[in-house]
Write a structure and sequence with these properties.
Elements: E1 3-8, H1 13-24, E2 29-32, H2 43-55, E3 61-66, H3 70-76, E4 84-86, H4 90-100, E5 104-108, H5 114-126, H6 133-143
Parallel strand pairs: 1-2, 1-3, 3-5, 4-5
Bound molecules: D-ribose (RB5).
Amino acid sequence: MKKIAIGSDHAGFELKEKIVAHLKSQQYDIKDFGTNSPESCDYNDVAKTVAQQVANHTYDRGILICGTGIGMSIQANKIDGIRAALVHDMFTAKATRLHNDSNVLTMGGRILGEDLAKAITDTWLNTVFSNEARHLRRVKKIES
Ligand code: RB5
């Protein structure tokens, strides 16, 4: 079972709470790194915390939600070893796992409805990296 670290800012708080409940109902081992209210806060801090937990392999995957998902993805991708993918549809939820082996999913709480966000999360968590040579080569090049 994958260990998942999740976090949001205020704009992603409501959706984050729904995704946490959704994943807990599937018995995922999930740790919520906040934020814990709709009070305004900076997405940067939780993005760094969650990304570092994934980069050091304490958690297998990270999920980050802000208003658009953009700030979270920019910030998380500054951490070595992180491949954060901003996803707002089912096609890219699957493609970024198959092709990029993304280890952090970012979503926009002001963009996605609850059902689509849950479906994206499930697809992203359950799709295994293709391990095809060309994709492996490209993923390795991200780090070099
Ligand atoms: C907060 O207003 C908003 O800027 C933030 O949640 C995020 O969308 C930034 O990329």
